[in-house]
Structure formats: structure tokens, C-alpha cells
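Continuing the batch. This is chain 6 of the set; chains 1 through 5 are on the previous pages. Same settings as before, nothing changed between runs. Recording input and output for traceability.
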Amino acid sequence: MKDLLLITPPFTQLNTPYPATAYLKGFLNTKNISAFQIDLGLEVILELFSKKNFQDLFDYAFKNNTIVSENCQRIYTLKDFYLQPLNAVIGFLQGKNPTFARQICTENFLPRASRFNQLDDMDWAFGSMGLQDKAKHLATLYLEDLSDFIVECIDDNFGFSRYAERLGQSANSFDELYLHLQDSLTFIDTITLKILDEKLKTTTPKLVCFSVPFPGNLYSAFRCAQYIKTNYPKIKVAMGGGFPNTELRSVSDVRVFEFFDFITLDDGEVPIELLYNHVKSSALEMPFKRTFLLENGSVVYKNNSTQPDYKQSDLGTPDYSDLLLNDYISVIEIANPMHSLWSDGRWNKLTMAHGCYWGKCTFCDISLDYIKIYEPITAKLLADRMEQLIEQTAETGFHFVDEAAPPALMKALALEIIKRKLTVTWWANIRFEKNFTKDLCLLLKASGCIAISGGLEVASDRLLALIDKGVTVEQVAQVTRNFTEANIMVHSYLMYGYPTQTIQETIDSLEMVRQLFEIGVLQSGFWHQFALTAHSPIGLNPSDYHIVPNTKTITFANNDIEFTDTTGIDHNQFSFGLKKSLFNFMHGIGFDLPLQDWFDFKIPKTTIHKDFIYDCLETEAHFNIKPTAKIVWLGTKPLLTEFSKTKKGETYHSLKLSFHNTTDTFEVILDKDKGTWFFNTLDSLSPSNNKLPSFSELKKDFETYFEDFELFWFSKPINQLKNNGLLVL
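Output for chain 6:
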């Protein structure tokens, strides 16, 4: 028996839990409020893609005569070949039978329909040794064949990471979704509600809370809430999460509250704590925090609690218990290194800070609290939470899901990870800002950072300034170079169709992207078309950006807004060419083709010089170091050998320092006295030192004994050490 049941409705990710319910459960633990959480999407997928249920699904499609296309006829004809390995394939993708990879990779073992038409160069994608990844990719295509069969023959709303997404997108009126909820249950609804009913009987909650992050979760959340209201009328039902936080801030349709008793906005901890108090109490009047409810037949918004939101340090560690952590499915949909991070492997998700430290991008919902209110967590507390999650989940992989992780906090966390000798793997989203120096990138790598993603967006300095991104293309090139040279993979979000963007700027952006891939400082990317949102600076002040919004009466969802760009340019026409070229660039091909070849209509020639990015990276070495910069040595203590040479009757005493790293051995020779000073100083430069010396402190100590620290610091031996773990941060 639990007080609360926390549910992520179908569907989000196959490979790892969406973290919202884990965050809430971690908070509820600090208040001794009992809660149980389920990833309903995962459990539905596992039930649906079982041999028994898919046999029923094939029979259902045949009985209802819905098998029309040649592709689905092929799948149905081969149904026995699809059904026989299905349970084993799911087990393999759950990591339970790695030796099955050899069988999967055997020619013609898995049946193949249209999804396998995209198989082109498996050796390029996975190499001769990438057997597990190759098998995951083949198994993923096999599941996607079956998914195509579901979409065509059973339920056209199905998708692995979304369900009936169209019903939740730009749904200014509740009418269409409401009508769908009056229809008969779908095949997938039946499975969903069967699992839900089992959980309700087991946990007997007083309050069920649905976390709805995306439009593709909305329909299932409403269908589940409808079931609870019909069959368990005494249970109260609430909705929160990313979708209501952005889309339902203007909800006024009373029919919504036939399904939900409460809809909460923004940070959910205090609102849910108060809802818990409400359902536990018999009092008529209770305070609420940022909560919509029905009162006297009308939708009202109540925010009459004086209780402040909790500090990030007081929210507790996310709690992933109850979730089927060993049953998540790792898939590899396409041979893209960053996409494989999103879909392959289990990741513990954490945030370094609440909100965004930049908070200025004009396309972003910076007027909303989840971005506007910035509050970082200390590196020590983050590392504590990482250690707790490793103990709880036995997983050492972390995805920091910040809007943009702050560089200073990333540095502090990296030092804390190294200090604690944690073996972890992590990645994060960032801004390509100048603080990501070569040395900081090397530190991040040493702490376990394997990848970063960041927004280059329109790859045009004029438009980057209009976005208020705070970066230039030159700066992005230099930062991506720093990450790449540190062996950290770089993924870039790319945008086209930004207000006032010209055709010439779109083509010039493509040329910038081409050069970044050709020179090797970008490894992954994704183009998306600009979308106008209601809570962004552009959405709030559209005339400032020369667009005309197509406004509608809002009674339900309000976020994405249709608009007309006064330039009159049809940006949709660029979509295929931009994405096709990017796909080729990520494969390392197509760099020599004229940009015109990617489009089937006439485009202007680029105005960007062919060596623009190359020239951006031809930067001179900087000899100015901030006095406050911290000095860190990531290497080991060297072995010492003293020797002397006599020249023209004068004897010179030297010290040879022999360093060993994981791959190599190198030697540095210094004057004996200075070498001894440096050797004795190395301990203070270790990340385990609670107070690392600054450049000025190091200089002061050196010049207590010798002269001209700069001459020593920029000498050839010390420069050799800088290439092997001596960092200026």
C-alpha cells in the first residue's frame, strides 16, 4: 500500500527511465511520503513485443483485413520467422544474452522487410570488431519492421517513443482529443489499462500523479486517468511535467477535469506535497501551489500557499527503485554516435543546476520558471548523489539533462570526481562558450566525460546575435576543436528557418557546417526547423522579429504557434537537402560535392570562404594567464634520476624526471634545484588537494627561490608536461 503512485505514461525512451518520477520519489523520501513509480511505457512495450501478444496482433490484423501494403503482407507471410526469435531478441537488447549477437549477425537469421533497405555500409558503421553494436542495429531494424506493421495494420498512433503525438501538438482546443477518448479502446490501450489496473490493485494509492513530458504522452495519460475515474472514483488524479508546464498554462476547458482532479505547473515538489496533504485531510479549505482544479463548475488556478519552493540541495537524491532497470531495451536506430547515446544503454539522469545560467536565447521559453530561475547544486553534493545512484542502480553512466551545463560547475564536478577516484561515464548539454578551453576539456575527459551536445543553431553571426546566443561561429569552431582534441564527441543542434533568415544565410550556414565536419571538429549533428513557442521572447514580441503569428482561441494547449515570416521564404524546401547533406558529412563523405547537388532547385553560391573554419582555428598561442587560474597535475609522480655534466670546467647538476602514463613514458630534464622545487610542488597540484594553488601563488613560491617564473613556465620541458596532464584552469 502506497500513498502515491507516480506514472510516466507511454511512451518516452526504451533504453532508460525518464527521470521525472525518480526525482519526485527522491523528494518524497525526504518527507516520509510513501510512493511507488512505474514507467508504464516500458511495461507496455515489453508486453506488446512478446511472442504471445504479437501472435494475437497478427491474428487481429488478419481477421480485420487490415494487411494492405506489400511490406506488411511480407511481414505477415513471414510471421513465424518474426515470432520465433522475438523474446530472445528483446532479451538480447536488454543485455541478458550477449552471445546471441553472433546469431543475429548471421546472414538471413532475422527476417527482413523495408527497414532493412537502409542497410548500406555496416563495416563503416560498426567496423570489424563491433559485433554487439552491429547486432543491436539489426535487432532494432527487426523491431522497427514489426512497429511498421502495428502502425499500418493495428494502430496508426503507435511509435516507440510517442503515442498519438499529433493529438497533443498545438491542441489549442480539447475537442479532438476528447472525441478520441470517447472511441473504443485500441489494442495498445487494452494492454496499457490491464497493466495499470494491476498496479492500482497492488499499490492502492490515494493519489495518482502522471508526469507528462511530451505531446506523445498526453493521450495515454488521459486514457489512463479516464480508466481510474471510471473504475476507482475515490482515487484522486493529478498531472504535471514538461507538457503541462509549457502547454497548459491557459487551460480553461472544464471537460479536462472529467479526467484529472489537479494539474500542477513548474517544479512539482511543493505542489505534490500540498496535494498529498489535501487528499489525506478532511478539511474543506487547503492551500495549493500553482495548481489548476475545478471549483463550482469552473476551472480555477490556485496559488495560495505561502510555502516557498525547496532549494535544490534539499530535494534528495533521485530514487530509481520500483522501475524495471534491468528490463530497459538498448537500441541503435541509425549509425550516428550521439543518437546511440540517447537510445543505447542505461543512464542515470541528473541536473547540475535548475534553470539556465545563460537564459537569453530568443527562441527558448526563458519566461518560464524551469529556465528562468537558475540555481546550481554544489559539486560535492552532485558527486554524493552520483555515488548514491551508483550504489542504488549499479550503473556508472550519467546524463546531465541541464538546458546548458555551467562550465564552472562542470570543472568543479570533474575535479571532485577525480578526487574521489570515481570511475564514471558522463555527458551533458552545453553552450559553446569560450570558457571551454583546451585544458578544461582535458580535465572533463579525465573525469569521464565522453560527449557533449550544444547549439550552433543557424551558423550565422548575424542570426546568432539576433538569437542572443552569446557565441560566434569562430568561437564555436575553436570550442569544438578543444573538445575533439580531448577525445570528447561533439554533437551540434542546427536550426534553419529562423525569422528573417535569408536563402543566402541558409546556404552559408550549410557551408559552415560542411567545413566543421570536413575539418573534423564536429562528429554529429541534427537540423531542425525553427518553431515559434508562446513563452519565448519571439513568441511574446513577434513583431520585433518580423513575423505574424496565427493566433487562435486557447482553451487547452498553448505552446507551438503557426506564423507567417514576412520574408515570404518557404523554409520547408530546404529540409531534405540539409538533412541529406548532414547524413553524408557524418559518414565522412560528400565534402567535395557542390552544395547545389544536395538540392533539386536552384540555390545561390555560398559567400563563405572555403578556408573560413580552418582560418578560425589558426589561432596564436596565448601567453597571458589569469593570476587566479588554478594549476592541476593529472599525472603520476615521476621517478627521479640525478646526473651532472661538466663543461669548460663548470659542473651543471640536472634532474631527470621520468613520467609514466597509461599509454607511454616520457622524460623531462630540469636544472636540479628547479627540478627539485617542481617535484616537491607536484603534490599540491593534485586534484585531491582541497585548495589548488593559483598561477600567482605558484609564481610567488617559485620566485622565493629563483627568478623569472614565466621563463620557467613557458620553457620546453614544462610545455611538454602541459601536453601530458599539466593544466591551467
